[in-house]
Amino acid sequence: MATALALLKDVFGYPAFRGQQAEIVDHVIAGGDALVLMPTGGGKSLCYQIPALARQQAGHGTTIVVSPLIALMHDQVGALHEAGVQAAFLNSSLSMEEANAVERRLARGELTLLYAAPERVTTPRFLALLDAMHAQGKLSLFAIDEAHCVSQWGHDFRPEYRGLALLHGRYADVPRIALTATADGVTREDIVAHLQLGQARQFVSSFDRPNIRYTIAEKKDPTLQLLRFIEGEHAGEAGIVYCQSRKRVEEVAELLCREGLDALPYHAGLDAQVRQRHQDRFLRDDGVVMTATIAFGMGIDKPDVRFVAHLDLPKNIEGYYQETGRAGRDGLPSDAWMAYGLQDVVNQRRMIDESPAAEEFKQVQRGKLDALLALAEATDCRRVRLLAYFGERSQPCGNCDNCLNPPAVWDGTEAARMLLSTVYRVQQASGLHFGAGHIMDILRGKETEKVQQFGHQRLSTFGIGAEFSEAQLRGVLRQLIATGALAVDASSFNTLHLTAASRAVLKGEQPVRLRESIMQPAGRSRRRERAGARSAVPAAAASLTGDAQQRFAALKEWRTRMAREHNLPAYVIFHDATLAAIAALAPRSLGDLEGVSGIGAKKLETYGPGVLDVLQALG
Ligand code: ADP
Ligand code: ZN
């Protein structure tokens, strides 16, 4: 029997296991149960694919992979075919005849892996098939992907997953591996309880994604900021832009297209066929920017998404981490970029307040929003805060905006006290509540019509904050609202109200520290000069010389042609990193190509000659 490492090299073309993969793989090959918690892009698939291969070679038969996502099954099976592995899937996208053909292959023991949807696995018909395989000792392993779907606390609860518990009862001697990228403790306990994995060994990886750079910018002219970010850092590269509303998605996609980007909209209001077409384009073509609501992204395992941008605030840190986690699965430098402003805070608070949910539930939502706002307002390392949220301690990362360009911080405590006492005084004087603009006018001593109408120029705080700019005061207001020291009443013209938390700030017990507001959005050239800024060279090719760059470009073109011919996403043929390694190596023979990371035996045979032709044509 080939060792796990030999299979990794020969079939997948990778020189070494990552992180805990080797341990997990050994444990499962030996027949142990496992629960694997690993971040997106950590390499979960190999944790069951290698055992599937090894165990089949040892005569144990087929591995059944339970997966909830049709698109993902399709791509995984496609990628396995390319690597020369016998795999198939069973789901609702197949016709009756196609499904029957797959079942026959399964019964004949021709498959190393079968992917199936959870509702399929527990049908009497499928269980009868499994029974027959089991009786012959040909049921090797169950891999349960996206195992958090079993938990009703998660956002992806799928009742069908609960039915999977019967697998253990029925086939107690068949090992099981459950995998998820959702980290929190409640979900983990749920998985163990509902899938009866009490005996399983747990493998918990760090949730850090060191190749992702986190940036949270102050929102000024968000679409312009977005455009500068994409053009400056990710021209021609694939990315996802998340917006809150369908309308906004459409607008932003249009604007990006007008600016010459290859952008497509995606949201639940679009026709299913249009959605599918846009998703396929995103997966298959190079450099498409998907502008989407959060309806997009589940089950997208495109490895070369170079950036995820948020034009609106996500709901909470879990959402933010899941969405941004779609960047850089291939481990190459990637960006998580967000524009954030006062209106976001107001909107999110309002959405929670106005939702019909029970007060207890709303309280939880508010707590989660507060944690996200604290991340957005932070002037220290974003990653330290993110990981701390998931229970991991870490050191400043050197790869987030705050680490790379420590923000100038000013003490806004005095300004905050002035703002709060003005809110207090206008209410006392007139019994009415006012909005942010009016409060700032009073503080800065502007005798507007409204000020005169209410006699607010006579308030003791009138003009005492003249030294502060409007931008500064807005920053203070945002932080006060973000931290709950000030509330906005959306049902009555966004008026400001004091809260129980206002007192500590008013008394000066609670310091307010703010990042210095940069009035000019950082332009393109300026951004490039800044410490740690990357150039617009594709991430994978960043370290290549001129000649190698040329080879890289030619290889990418060739890959696009191959992808079209084989009707596969480009990355299933070769990852960018593999193309970059080939470009650097400038191989002249198949022997030279052997051992390049990402080129297994089957791919060497299928694509090796084509690659050599491309390079030869360049001279
Ligand atoms: P996950 O399911 O955990 O999000 P995947 O299994 O899709 O992650 O793996 C992410 C990417 O990393 C894939 O493109 C995969 O080919 C690559 N990968 C996984 N393990 C290794 C390894 N040991 N060496 C090189 N690349 C790897
Ligand atoms: Zn950092």
TrEMBL record:
Q: What is its EC number?
A: 5.6.2.4
**What InterPro entries does UniProt report for this protein, alphabetically?**
DEAD/DEAH_box_helicase_dom, DNA_helicase_ATP-dep_RecQ, DNA_helicase_ATP-dep_RecQ_bac, Helicase_ATP-bd, Helicase_C-like, HRDC-like_sf, HRDC_dom, HRDC_dom_sf
Recite the UniProt keywords alphabetically: ATP-binding, DNA damage, DNA recombination, DNA repair, DNA-binding, Helicase, Hydrolase, Isomerase, Metal-binding, Nucleotide-binding, Zinc
Gene3D superfamilies annotated for this entry? Answer: HRDC domain, P-loop containing nucleotide triphosphate hydrolases, Winged helix-like DNA-binding domain superfamily/Winged helix DNA-binding domain
Does the record carry Mitochondrion as a key word? Answer: no
Q: Which Pfam families match?
A: DEAD, Helicase_C, HRDC, RecQ_Zn_bind, RQC
Every copy of the Helicase C-terminal domain together lies at: 222-372
Q: Does the keyword Membrane apply?
A: no
Q: Which cofactor does it need?
A: Zn(2+); Mg(2+)
HRDC domain location is: 545-619
**Catalysed reaction per UniProt?**
Couples ATP hydrolysis with the unwinding of duplex DNA by translocating in the 3'-5' direction
Q: Give the Helicase ATP-binding domain ranges.
A: 25-201
According to the UniProt entry, its GO molecular function terms are: DNA helicase activity; hydrolase activity
Family of the protein in this entry = Belongs to the helicase family. RecQ subfamily.
The record's section on PANTHER family has:
ATP-DEPENDENT DNA HELICASE Q1, DNA HELICASE RECQ FAMILY MEMBER
Name this protein carries in UniProt: DNA helicase RecQ
**What organism does this protein naturally occur in?**
Ramlibacter alkalitolerans
Q: Which gene encodes it?
A: recQ
